[in-house]
C-alpha cells in the first residue's frame, strides 16, 4: 500500500481521499488552508502543517484544488510541494487547470528529480463518492503505471492520453462537449415549453431517438424539476470554459459555440447562480427570454 499526500479535500477531494483510505492506502494531509477533515483523521490520516511536510512523507502527492493559481501556490509557494520532493516521488495534479501552465509545472517538478502527472477527472461528486470517475492522464507512462492502483481506487475509466498537459487538454475538451450539450438540451426544452408543449413529455419522447444522451437524461430532468443543487457548480464549469477560450486564443482557433455557452453561463452567474449545478444554464436562457419552463417566473 502506498503513502499518499492528499492536498485539497473539498466536495470532490474528500470522497476521493476516502476511497484511497478504503483501498488501504495511508494518507498525509496538509493543514495550511484549514484543519484536515475529521473523517480522514479518524480513519488514520495524518495531519501535517503544510504541503512541503506532506511531500516529504509521501511517495505520491495528489493535488485537488479549484484552479491554476491554487495549484501553483500548493506546488511552488512558501512551504510548497516542490520543496519536499525528489527522486522516486510522483506529483499527481487531479485539478482541472490550464494545459499550458501544466506543461510548465511539469518541467519545474521534473527539475527536482520527481515525476509529474496531470490527471483531471470527470464524473462530479456522485462519481467521486462511487469511485467511478473518468480519469484522463498526461505524463510519464512509467509513472502512470506506478499510480494505477491509486487511480483504480478512485475511478473506472482510466486513460493515459499522452504527454504532460494532455490530460488537462482532454478535460477541457470534455467540458466543451458537456457545456454545449447542456445548452442544447436547455434550448430545446425552453423552445418546447414556450411553444405550449409539456417539456417533461418532450424529454420523454426525445429519450427514444437520436437526441437521447446522458445530458438529456440527467440534466434535462434537473432542468424540468428545478433541482439545481450542486453537483458540479456552474462557476467551476464557467472557469473550465475560460480555459478552453484561453487555449483557443493561444492556438489561434475559433470556438464560437463555446464562447456562446460561456456567455450564457455568465448570465446565469450574474443572476445569482454561481453555486448552482451546471444544469442551471437553463436559468440563464430563461432570464433572457423572461420565461420559465417550470412556470416559476
From TrEMBL:
Its EC number is 1.1.1.60. It comes from the Bacteria. Keywords: NAD, Oxidoreductase. Residues 165-283 form the 3-hydroxyisobutyrate dehydrogenase-like NAD-binding domain. Residues 3-162 form the 6-phosphogluconate dehydrogenase NADP-binding domain. InterPro entries: 6-PGluconate_DH-like_C_sf (IPR008927), 6PGD_dom2 (IPR013328), 6PGDH_NADP-bd (IPR006115), HIBADH-like_NADP-bd (IPR029154), HIBADH-related (IPR015815), NAD(P)-bd_dom_sf (IPR036291), Tartro_sem_red (IPR006398). GO terms for molecular function: 2-hydroxy-3-oxopropionate reductase activity. The keyword NAD applies. Gene3D superfamilies: N-(1-d-carboxylethyl)-l-norvaline Dehydrogenase, domain 2 (1.10.1040.10), NAD(P)-binding Rossmann-like Domain (3.40.50.720). PANTHER family: 3-HYDROXYISOBUTYRATE DEHYDROGENASE-LIKE 1, MITOCHONDRIAL-RELATED. This is 2-hydroxy-3-oxopropionate reductase. It comes from Pseudomonas qingdaonensis.
Amino acid at each position: 500500500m502506498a503513502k499518499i499526500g492528499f492536498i485539497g479535500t473539498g466536495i470532490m477531494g474528500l470522497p476521493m481521499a476516502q476511497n484511497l483510505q478504503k483501498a488501504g492506502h495511508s494518507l498525509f494531509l496538509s493543514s495550511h488552508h484549514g484543519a484536515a477533515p475529521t473523517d480522514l483523521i479518524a480513519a488514520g490520516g495524518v495531519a501535517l502543517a503544510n504541503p512541503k511536510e506532506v511531500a516529504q512523507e509521501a511517495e505520491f502527492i495528489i493535488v485537488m484544488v479549484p484552479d491554476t493559481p491554487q495549484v501553483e501556490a500548493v506546488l511552488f509557494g512558501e512551504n510548497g510541494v516542490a520543496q519536499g520532493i525528489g527522486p522516486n516521488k510522483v506529483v499527481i495534479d487531479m485539478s482541472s487547470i490550464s494545459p499550458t501552465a501544466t506543461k510548465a509545472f511539469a518541467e519545474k517538478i521534473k527539475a527536482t528529480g520527481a515525476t509529474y502527472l496531470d490527471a483531471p477527472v470527470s464524473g462530479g461528486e456522485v462519481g467521486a463518492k462511487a469511485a467511478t470517475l473518468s480519469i484522463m492522464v498526461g505524463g510519464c507512462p512509467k509513472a502512470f503505471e506506478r499510480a494505477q492502483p491509486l487511480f483504480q481506487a478512485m475511478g473506472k475509466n482510466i486513460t493515459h492520453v499522452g504527454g504532460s498537459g494532455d490530460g488537462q487538454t482532454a478535460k477541457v475538451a470534455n467540458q466543451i462537449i458537456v457545456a454545449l450539450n447542456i445548452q442544447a438540451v436547455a434550448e430545446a426544452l425552453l423552445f418546447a415549453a414556450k411553444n405550449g408543449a409539456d417539456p417533461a413529455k418532450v424529454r420523454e419522447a426525445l429519450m427514444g431517438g437520436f437526441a437521447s444522451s446522458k445530458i438529456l437524461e440527467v440534466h434535462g430532468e434537473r432542468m424540468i424539476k428545478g433541482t439545481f443543487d450542486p453537483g458540479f457548480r456552474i462557476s467551476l464549469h464557467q472557469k473550465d470554459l475560460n480555459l478552453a477560450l484561453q487555449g483557443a486564443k493561444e492556438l489561434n482557433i475559433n470556438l464560437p459555440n463555446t464562447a456562446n455557452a460561456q456567455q450564457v453561463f455568465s448570465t446565469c452567474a450574474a443572476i445569482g447562480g454561481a453555486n448552482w449545478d451546471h444544469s442551471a444554464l437553463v436559468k440563464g436562457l430563461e432570464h433572457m427570454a423572461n420565461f420559465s419552463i417550470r412556470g416559476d417566473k
